[in-house]
Each structure stands twice: as structure tokens, then as C-alpha cells.
């Protein structure tokens, strides 16, 4: 559910929504969600001083009330 939310939200922000994809990695104490986007969109997704990605993380922290899993969000440029 969190992975789908992040993917759809990233598509709304991105200039090239067709290139946005996510990958989920389950670790021992956390789940990492990697957002792959066009190189031009990575800065937009991270935001100035990380404000956009921190806002997304804040929404996910609110979700933790129902789901005790810790999430780590990473934004990476998609290879051409």
C-alpha cells in the first residue's frame, strides 16, 4: 500500500510520469522503497533541501500507526 502511494504521488510531481517506477526491498528492520525516475525529475522529487522527500516521509510516518514497519525512501535516476 505504501509503495503504491509513493509511486502514484511521484507520478503527480514528475514531468515524465511514464518513467516513474518503484522497487521494494525488505530488510531486517525496515522496508526500503526505491523510486526510479527520469534524471530530470529526481531533483523535483527530492525538492529543495530535501523538503519534498521529507514531506513524503512524514505522510508515511503517519501510516505507521496502522503498520509498524519502518520505511526508507530512496530516489534514483533511471538509466537511459
From TrEMBL:
SUPFAM superfamilies per UniProt: Prokaryotic type KH domain (KH-domain type II) (SSF54814)
- Extract the GO molecular function terms from the UniProt entry: RNA binding
Pfam family for this entry, one:
KH_KhpA-B
Q: Which InterPro entries match?
A: KH_sf_prok-type, KhpA
Give the top-rank taxon of the lineage listed in the UniProt record for this protein.
Bacteria
The protein in question is named KH domain protein
Q: Which organism is it from?
A: Campylobacter gracilis RM3268
